[in-house]
Amino acid sequence: METKRTAVLMNLCTAAGLIGMGFFIFYGVQNRIFVSKDALELFLHDCGMWAPVLFVLIQIIQVVIPILPGAIGCLGGVLIFGPVWGFVYNYIGISIGSVLAFLLSRQYGRPFVRNMIGEKNYDKYIGWLSKGNGFDKAFAVAIFLPVAPDDLLCYIAGLTRMTLKKFTAIIILGKPGSILLYSLGLTGIMEVLKMIF
Fold first, then answer.
1. Which residues contact 99 (CB under 8 A, 6 or more apart)?
2. Is the predicted pLDDT of residue 11 greater than 70, yes or no?
3. How open is the CA angle 29-33-37, to the nearest 5 degrees?
4. Cys-Cys with 33: which of 23, 28, 57, 63 at CB 3.0–4.6 Å?
């Protein structure tokens, strides 16, 4: 009886969270905060002290529901909050989002993953599963690289036998390097563009 009540409560909390996220995504799409660094910056500026929390939420959403290109989020974090705090907020949001993508994949399986990442991406990366235990190593290497399709691979990882503990360790250890390289690289490109134009 208690287990059933807990399951119902968890399902209600999940539904409420998804509805809230849906409204936030709708608002974000209408106000272009998921596709424009300037719109994102204006939105966060208006949020005052809640800006870091909302930015982390945006980074979680952009991993779980790939609407915002990861480059915009990483660059936005560094430009809006500075290199140190921008890195920290990017790292927290992307790590939480990666774990959520893995858990959703694990819970809902292949049809869900196919819908989330698209048929073309699914067909392209599902072959990674044939690597067996080699998938874990390939996944770890990919997470360290700033150009790998991390979000898609997190969904694919959820279809493997990889444990949540191992997945989380790979994300926690692998993400800082790629986020740092990504953030610094994008910031450097922006500085060069400012000098040119």
1. 154, 164, 167, 168, 171
2. no
3. 145
4. 28
> Helix crossing, 37-46 with 51-64: angle to 10°?
140
Read off the amino acid at residue 121: N
Please give the structure tokens belonging to residue 161: 């036998």
Q: How far apart are CA 128 and CA 132, in angstroms?
A: 8
**Residue 10: pLDDT above 60?**
no
- Residue 91: name the closest of 173, 158, 155, 190 by CA: 173
97 confidence band (pLDDT: 50, 70, 90): very high
| pLDDT tops 90 at residue 137 | no
Looking at residue 64, its pLDDT comes to 86
Mean pLDDT score, 92-114: 92
Both tokens of 54, joined, read: 């909302």
Under 8 Å between Cβ of 65 and 25: yes
Residue 192 is given by DSSP the state H
Q: Does residue 72 contact residue 64 with C-beta atoms inside 8 Å?
A: no
* 186's tokens: 């994008």
Which are the contacts of 156, defined by CB distance < 8 A and separation ≥ 6? 105, 113, 117, 125, 126, 128, 129, 139
